[in-house]
Amino acid sequence: MRAPLDHISDTRARIWLDAHRRPALRPFGPVQMIFCFLLAGVSASGVTGLALWRARLVGHWRVARKAISELDGRWRDYARNG
């Protein structure tokens, strides 16, 4: 239930204005700054983790390809020479 206006007449409200004297969002406070830094850190760590996982996956693929190529070469030598 809302209080009648005469009971809250001493209440003040801050309205932030931009350069053109229009209502604007209030500036960031310390809590919002910390939240933004944490959100940016989580996003950056997610992207970095994904890139490292992809690099490791490609590395395993290259090692496996090299091993198979060596085994294929040995098998062909064995098949030719008996």
Please explain how this structure is put together:
It is a single chain. The mean pLDDT is 85. It is rod-shaped and about 100 Å long. Helices cover 63% and strands 0% of the residues. The chain has 1 helix and no strands. By secondary structure, the protein is mainly α.
Per DSSP, the total helix count is 1
Radius of gyration: 33 Å
Distance between the termini: 95 Å
Please give the share of residues in helix: 55-70%
What portion of residues belong to β-strands? Answer: under 5%
Main sheet makeup: none
Order of helices and strands: H
> What is the residue-mean pLDDT, rounded to a whole number?
85
The number of distinct β-strands equals 0
Class from helix and strand fractions: mainly alpha
Outline type: rod-shaped
pLDDT < 50 runs, ≥5 residues: none
Layout of secondary structure:
Elements: H1 30-81
Short overview:
The chain has 82 residues and is an all-alpha fold.
Keywords summarizing the entry:
single chain; 82 residues; mainly alpha; 63% helix; 0% strand
